Amino acid sequence: MSIRKRNGSDFWHVDIRAPGGSRVRQSTGTTNRKEAQEYHDKLKAELWRIAKLGEKPSRSFDEAALRFLNEHAGTVDYTNKAIHIRHFREVFEGRRLDSITRDEIFTALPEVSGRTNKITRLSNTTKNRYLGTMRAMLNTAMRDWEWIEKVPKLSEMAIGPKRIRWITREEAQRLIRAISTDWMRDVTILGFATGLRQANLLGMEWTQIDLVKRRAWVHPDQAKARKPIGVPLNREAVDVIRRNIGRHERFVFVRGKSPVVKWDIGQWNRAVERAGIEHFRFHDVRHTWASWHVQGGTPLNRLMELGGWSKYEMVLRYAHLAPDHLAEHADTVTIWAHDGSECGAQDGPDMGLMA
Question: pTM for the full model?
Answer without folding.
Answer: 0.60
